Amino acid sequence: MPRLRLSPIRAFDAAARHGNFRLAAEELNLTHGAVAQQIRALEDQIGQPLFERLPRGVVLTAAGAHLAKATRSALELMDQAVDALETGQKTLQISVPPSFAARWLVAAIPEFEAAHPDLRLAVSADVKVQPLRRGIVDAAIRMGPRPEVEGAVVTRLCPVEFVAVATPDYAARVGGAPGFEGAVLLQDAHGYWDRFLPGRGRDIRRYNYTVLAIDAAMEGQGVAIAPRLLVEKPLRRGDLRELWLPETGRDIGYYLIHPANLHRADPVLRFADWISGALS
Fold first, then answer.
1. Which of 42, 30, 32, 38 is CA-nearest to residue 67?
2. Do 170 and 274 have their domain in common?
3. Are residues 102 and 49 part of one domain?
4. In which element (H, E) is residue 213 found?
5. Would you say 162 and 277 are in contact if contact means Cβ atoms under 8 Å apart?
6. Torsion 247-250-251-257 (CA) sign
7. Is residue 1 part of a domain?
8. How many domains does the chain have?
9. How do residues 73-125 score in pLDDT, each as one tens digit?
């Protein structure tokens, strides 16, 4: 297949986001017909329809949805590269667990960028470690036992101290640690309540992300187990109360993963130095 040209990809991306050729044309400063023609040419080149045409707009086909995800990522990388050339900034792509992103890293980004004005952080919230590729995933952070990643440097940033938390009102209504009789146990995908209180499955409300269990605890819905790092602020404010410190293993920590053999001035190592200090 011949290489895809950029202009039809831009037209396709705009139409996919808007669900409408007219709005895509307005964004790109083109005519409706020009956008429709470029997308038709792209469909002819690929050999299958990318949109289902409806009376009031368009809907992506399965093939279109697959292509839209890839083209959006590619165009964002291109736009970031152009921005970096214009501003002198370099963008670092950092893959982190969703709850770490939501409860710690997002709030810390301005501090990093103030200390390193020539660098910008782009955060991708991922459950699994993504392959390290320059400009796509420059570095990753993961929580748990030390990960083994071939060809990468893995550095322990800090240990993880887990804490069981609930609102003060909720804590006053249920039994104390470690049994928590009468409590709803808010559990994330790590499954700590199953480990610490086996046989209490009926009392467990399950979430796939730690941040959701924390949010449920802050709404007074039960007792959650979470890394202290992620609940420091609500504990200081008094929104949550520390109820118990379960023992979860000394090898559990936050780990930074990045390519080996980087030059010591590499932006990834500058990020590594900053986050090591911030979490120490």
1. 42
2. no
3. no
4. helix 210-218
5. no
6. positive
7. no
8. 3
9. 888 777 766 655 654 568 899 999 999 999 999 999 999 999 999 899 999 99
